[in-house]
Amino acid sequence: MSLNPSLEETPGLRRRFIISSLIVVGIFCIFALRLWFLQVLGVDHYRNLSERNRIRHVAIHAPRGAIFDRHGTLLVDNRPAFAVSALRQEVGDRGPLFAALSELLDVDKEYLEERWRAGQGLPRYRPIPLLEDVGRQAMEKVQENSVDLPGVLVEVKPLRDYPYGNMAAHLFGYLGEVTEQELNRPAFASYRSGEMVGKTALERMFEDSLRGAAGQKRIEVNVKGRELRQVTVRNPLPGQRLYLTIDATLQQVAESALADKAGAVVALDVRNGEILALVSRPTFDPAWFARGVSGEEWRKLIDNPQHPMTNKALRGQYPPGSTFKMVVALAALEAGTATPATRVQCNGSMKLGSYEYRCWKKRGHGSVDLHKAIKESCDVWFYTVGLETGIDRIASVAQRLGLGKQTGFPFGGERSGLIPNRAWKKKRFGTSWYNGETVISSIGQGFVLTTPLQLATMTAALANGGTVWKPQIVQKVVDLEGETDWILKPEKLMETAWSEDSLQAVRKAMESVVNDVGGTAWRSRLKEVRFAGKTGTAQVIKRKSDEEEEKETKDDVIPYQYRDHALFVSYAPVENPQIAVAVVVEHGGHGSSAAAPIAKAMYAAYFADKTEDKETTQQVVPGD
Predict the structure, then answer these.
(1) Cα(first)–Cα(last) distance of the chain, in Å?
(2) Count of C-beta atoms within a 10 Å radius of residue 215
(3) Residues 6 or more apart from 305 whose CB is under 8 A from it?
(4) Total tally of structural domains belonging to the chain
(5) pLDDT, tens digit, for every residue of 326-359?
(6) Are strands 241-244 and 67-68 parallel, antiparallel or unpaired?
(7) Gap between the Cα atoms of 517 and 471, Å rounded
(8) Beta carbons of 151 and 143 less than 8 angstroms apart
(9) CB contact at 8 A, 158 and 61
(10) CA gap 46, 50 in Å, rounded
């Protein structure tokens, strides 16, 4: 008997052989099928995975569109800035990495950790920004030590640059990182986390025009993430250019003249409503927001009691004081309750029932007609004439001059001010209007509130004969090829056919305010440029007795927040008006000493080619 039986002789052994063979063949079939899947069906997928290990996609940020003034002067531009970022997929243990970066760049590890955590919400392919706007020396250190800094890269980003510092910051607005709430809106469908977007003013209003389109480059890297070569590049498209209506020189003069005082200045072209200067003080530095405002910087802004983030030209509401007297005069002339020859005896006060309403001049102005009333700002004349005219007629004229409603300025957030009448008070308080309220409204106090922009609009309407123009700030938008994409079209809000005699009486009186001896702004006159205006002093608190006022003036103990606001409205030149200026200096005291000199400096600069008095183009000396 054989000790090695054949397969045929041993059915069990044969069966095991067949099963084993089938298993081996099955395994080889599986391998073959897997190989076929990897090399045929999955080739594109795995090629992409391989490319991701070898190829890095880097976004190229688009420069935002530049902003120019009406003469082509560059106001807002971009500058290249270096940012240190990290690719999370290439960062293993970030502890040693951050320790190395901290020592290399002299920055706290805690700050780097904070930035890392803040960037966790970004898509995984997006680098996490660790340090923004680092200097060239820091950038070179990172590149020199890149072997020891796996996953760390230096990006070049365009940052907003402001050649004139914080000038016109409230006009330009500021940028901020797009928020999660914004990303959920259809308007931001094309944005990605981490992108900068206009938050206020022009940057927000013209976001679509200024933004541009980002580019991208594909670079090949080695296993350590170091760049080997550039594969492809799609260049970014810069944003469109904005040309504003403002005059950079006039804006600078206004900002310098207002200096560190709180308030606002508005200058506009009386012929079409173009804004030539718009100032709000105190202001902020928009460059802080372009690079990322720190917590400390933000606290300084929001804790400032003078509210530097508020555009006071649009949102500041102030009693207009005596600058409202032209409205009352025009209302009286148009209603026939007074003529230019109407005289009132001013002995320093007027009695109405048991109340006494005082004039600013304690000894009185004597016999006063309309011309003298405006020129010397006699309160008693306006008390008397305003009472005869009535609040409803006064309110109607005020509204037809652009007061008590928004002017339609395109930024949004504009306040409407307040022009009261009988119906308003009944609706607001449920009580009747009193004669005493007409008296104080006649000198721009009481319920009356206006914005600096409205005051400029009102003054322009008086200068041009009755047309209220919609204030405009953007002259045109120009694309990359130099083609005009959008151009300003002047827009009339209202047009009133005032009596020429009435207008001339008011304008002649405004001219004497500045140019005649005894006018309240006589010290601010200009030799070669004749302009007309009206001073105003708006009370912040109720007027006190003569004795209290004398003591406070003597002791100089009036707290800043209780001091009167100083106002001045004007236009120039008187023979052919071109420009109107409204100035409000918060708690500045008197319009003649605090506000009028600012307008004087602006007219001297604007008409510099017509004046030989070089001293008038210098910064205003307080008290001039």
Answers:
(1) 137
(2) 15
(3) none
(4) 2
(5) 999 999 999 999 999 999 999 999 999 999 999 9
(6) parallel
(7) 34
(8) no
(9) yes
(10) 6
